[in-house]
Amino acid sequence: MSEHSHPAIPAKAGIQGKDVAGGAVPRWIAAVAGLTTAALLATAASAQDRWPERLYNPQKADGDLVLPMPCGGAMTFRRIDLPADGALGDRRVQLGGADDKVAYAENTRTDYVAGGFTDPKAKGVRYYWLGKYEVTSGQYDAFAEPCAKPGEESRLPKVSVTWAEAVGFAARYSNWLVAHAAKDLPVEDGAPAFLRLPTEAEWEYAARGGAAVPDSIFVDHAFPMPEGMARYVWYQGTDSANNELNAIGLLKPNPLGLHDMLGNAGEFVLDPFRLNKLSRLHGQAGGQTVKGGDYRTPAADIRSAARQEFAPVDKKGERRSATTGFRLALVSPSLPSPQRLARIRTDWAALPTTGAAPQDDPVKEVEALAQSVEDPAIKKRIAALSTVIKTSIQTRNEQRDRAAVNALRVGAYVADKLSADKRVIAAQEAALATLGSASADTRKQVEDRLAQNRRALDDNLSYYVDVVLAIAADYPDSVVSGQAEVLKRDLEARKVDVLARQVDPLVRRVEQVRGGRPLDRDAVLKEIR
After folding, report:
1. Considering only CA atoms, which of 425, 471, 472 is closest in space to residue 451?
2. Which stretch of DSSP H or E encloses residue 79?
3. Residue partners of 503: CB distance under 8 A and separation at least 6
4. Distances, alpha carbon 350 to alpha carbons 335, 344, 353, in Å
5. d(Cα 150, Cα 75) in Å, to the nearest integer?
6. Computed from CA positions of residues 393, 401, 111, 248, in that sequence, does the dihedral angle turn out positive or negative?
7. Is the preceding peptide bond at 146 cis, omega within 30 degrees of 0?
8. DSSP letter at 475?
9. Which residues pair with 109 in a beta bridge?
């Protein structure tokens, strides 16, 4: 099956969401009883043939990484690329959302994410691997003895597990892979990969579509679903999950090829739950974090930012949830080798100083140092250094201002282009409505040109939103407002009033983003005159 073809979605999965763990004996208990690992593996190999692909990768696609499991099982992973360079390179991402009802937990915040793997064929890219599907009950039971024959129910996500059990499963699977399938494991600087729960930033970056979508789409409430949510997400209602857990791989994937990131089973991540405090997480760590919503979540509440606290115990003791499962990340150590450690030390030494100086103004600090010494020659050298610092700061500020005004100019130009695109499309739509008895060929030509211009409008709108997000991230308010006035005066002097009129709306949208309110693409397009 190709990467872009998918099986028809049945009206109902026909599988109930029950726990199929049964009473299987964990491998470590059998080992304590006197059975060796080799004997157990021999028993498993003889008792269980390799699973059919539908149980671990029902929607095969290019780029899938399939790793073996005990009892003939397997698990599938997708590579998650991040533009980043060097040993300390990472990517700043905007997580969360702007829904006031849940702002205490999900308000927009900045985080950073990076992959531990490098690819010599792809410079400037680092990556990690993430489970293509939620861990199934069949995969969870692959470490039990004796091997059970997997059936259709084994395709259900494994739920009603504790966070500790999910972490323990990742550890058992890592150990088994190193011992029995080391040749299949990715390696970084000689160190084998291992499995763990994904961090919340890793999970949400992948759920939103990662580098496969532009920034303007990445910050939306969910990844693009051109065929409607019901084709991508199991949510509450008779038109979707119907209050039932569903088997993996029945719906379409997100832009990174990941299935059921939203809906079906909520998913544990590695990080403890913390409240939001405006643009950052609060200092108190609580229970576990569950991401993505589940099959009981209403369609209106499906969003990438969704995060809930799962308290591990209540008054009755240990807690489990029939709606909560997990998927695994395949990662490398941060320090896989002495060579990597040496590179990190070198890169760290080259970083700008992060500690706060005794004075915020470096020029004043130098002047204070000059007053603290007696030697006239040293005073003279410090005074000269002060001049160099002033010149450097001034040069930097001028370069920053030029970059800011150019970014604003680009934004104004793209806004004007959007305005022109809207006029062209409106004229073509009017012409199409008046064709009447025109020939089919004539009508098709007009329709084709209209479709082409609509695609161009959508691309330009994405670029415009990207420009707004970049300006908000790279320049402070004082620089944006100051350079906006410079740009307007420049455009007016050159009698380009049509661009000058786009500057103030652009600045307002930058302020909107900086205030933590996402841009609505339809609203932006409607406002552009």
Report:
1. 425
2. strand 74-83
3. 408, 412, 484, 487, 488, 491
4. 18, 10, 9
5. 14
6. negative
7. yes
8. S
9. 95
Could you tell me the end-to-end alpha-carbon distance of the chain, in angstroms, rounded to an integer? 46
Neighbours of 125 (CB within 10 A): 18
* pLDDT tens, residue by residue, 290-334: 999 999 999 999 999 999 999 999 999 999 999 999 999 999 999
Q: 53, 93, 95, 105: which is closest to 76 by C-alpha?
A: 53
Give the whole-angstrom CA distance, residue 134 versus residue 362. Answer: 52
pTM: 0.72
Half-sphere exposure of 315 (CA within 13 A, CB side): 0
Give the per-residue SS3 of 8-47.
CCCCCCCCCCCCCCCCCEEHHHHHHCCCCHHHHHHHHHHH
Report residue 214: phi and psi, to 5°.
Answer: -70, 165
**25-339: CATH architecture:** Alpha-Beta Complex (3.90)
Q: How many CB atoms neighbour CB 413 within 10 A?
A: 15
Cα 96 from Cα 25, distance rounded (Å): 41
Query: 371: exposed, middle or buried (C-beta count within 10 Å: 0-12, 13-18, 19+)?
Result: exposed
155-181: pLDDT as tens digits: 999 999 999 999 999 999 999 999 999
What are the residue ranges of CATH 3.90.1580.10 in the chain? 25-339
CA distance 203 to 205: 6
